[in-house]
Write a structure and sequence with these properties.
Length: about 140
């Protein structure tokens, strides 16, 4: 696949995302990211698509006495975290990726890691991070 093909896959992912076809858009963004490995946006949008697909699926999260029941959407959140982490490796100060990775971590009940992401984003001046931290702590 050429660089032009990578950007075509990216554009297709954007179209599918706007149509709320999150799993399909994730596939296109993944194909794009495989070619455009050092571009932040395909990785970021892959993470967002995976996060939305996980939210769309929904599911049950139960944590008690050290036992954690994982819902079917968990794999989507894991993919979101991996993609958003790659976007941050490319551009460490990109606070939208920190904020969204915090959402994926919170949805996996990893509140300490979500707090760490949102705290880092707040320190970098992200306008949404303080509100998210307040909701997490409240």
């Amino acid at each position: 696949m050429t660089i032009d093909d990578g950007w075509s896959q990216y554009d297709r992912g954007c179209e599918l995302f706007r149509a709320r076809k999150f799993a399909e858009s994730a596939s296109s963004f993944e194909a794009s990211a495989a070619v455009l490995t050092n571009e932040r946006d395909p990785w970021y949008n892959l993470g967002i698509a995976c996060l939305h697909e996980g939210d769309r699926i929904g599911g049950l999260h139960v944590e008690t006495d050290g036992l954690r029941v994982v819902s079917p959407n968990d794999r989507w959140y894991i993919r979101a975290i991996e993609a958003l982490t790659r976007a941050l490796e490319i551009e460490p100060t990109y606070t939208p990726a920190l904020v969204m990775r915090g959402h994926a971590r919170r949805n996996r009940l990893d509140t300490d890691l979500a707090r760490a992401d949102w705290t880092a984003a707040q320190r970098m001046g992200d306008p949404h991070a303080a509100k998210l931290l307040a909701q997490l702590n409240g």
